[in-house]
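Course assignment 3, question 2. Fill in each field.
Student: A.L.
Task: Predict the tertiary structure for the chain below.
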Amino acid sequence: MIGRMFGDRSRRAAAGTAGAVLAAGVMLSLTSLPAHADDEPVTLPPLALELADDVACTEASDTTAESRPWTWRALQLTRARQLSSGEGVTVGVVGTGVGTDVPALSGRLTAVGEAGVDCVGHGSFAAGLIAGAAAEDGAVAGVAPAAEVVAARATTERGAPDAATAAAGVRAAVEGGASVIWLGVALRGQHDGLTEAVDEALAADVVVVAPAAPDVSPEQLPAGEELPPRDYWPAAMPQVLSVLDFGPQDVRADGAPLPLAADLAAPGGDVVGIGPEGQGHFLGTGPSLAAAHVAGAAALVRSHAPELDREEVVERLLRPAYPDVVPRLDVVASLTSFLGRPVALPEPEPAVVPPPAPAEPATRALWTAGVGVAVVLVVGALIAVVPRGKARGWRPAGAPAGGGLPDGRALARRP
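Answer field:
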């Protein structure tokens, strides 16, 4: 179902995001987008996914985007920043490493082992999407710019995913205090060591976010056909938050790999981000970048409501999501929705039936009412009769005035 939905959208607007990848080894393609206030298009260098052995490490970009990218509006970051900036939360970035000289993460980055060197640049790009702070008067920043970052490796130095390295990186991030982990690999098939490390992180109340499918370059896509959907690891684990991408035209690259299922969709096409050094910007596309945005949102929620546990944070991200075949991340709704737990009502006390009323008061009341009615009737009769009697001088009805019988005969006086 996911494949059909995104496949149809891709065919309707394939030009929207298909252009995003190229280079020696495995790299994303160049794309022009407005980067200045006057909307003059500039070309940002592509984000590398994996470097061939004969390709030099990624250097700083000399191009800077000066207008806010489309992802800022899609994620409603202006409103979200009024509620949370990720302060007090540490996010584990487990990928190709994160450059320790990245200005956007200055003072907030801890690298484990060799993870402070990012030859590829992909891990630094993701860390910037999660927690990068904008340069002075800059327009590009991460979702949670006040969050701390602990960097660990999930790949070789050249960017090739490695399950054992990823497992060690997850454990290092947990030991470094991460309460949210972005795990930027999507492997085919289950790997026991990585599964155990992720389970340990989940048991430690850590939110683990992973791409639901791998990032690929156009030359890796089969021409004229779609890859069959399949599970990718560790996103296929039940308690891992799996994320799929969409671009500025709500589509994915034609033929991009699809998972059997995904929990959330987030902006991941034509994304502007930082490099492994300097203040310049790169352009990237892929589910791993969408997962970085979700990891940043999880950091905002954990900062805004630190009393929530891992499951409650995930619920805050999933339940208010915009409904679609794959629900779409709504950062502001995740911060503002009230998802209360059912309240346990106390057991009701047994009902008390009052004893029947005694009969004597009722009988007394009836007698009192009867006497009252009789008094009213007598008084009423007196009111009607007394005035009439006085008017006749208390003579019988029909008696002549001055005395006598009714037939006119005078009454004899008694001597």
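Instructor remarks: Residues 387 and 394 are 10 Å apart (CA to CA). The chain has a mean pLDDT of 83.
Grade: pending
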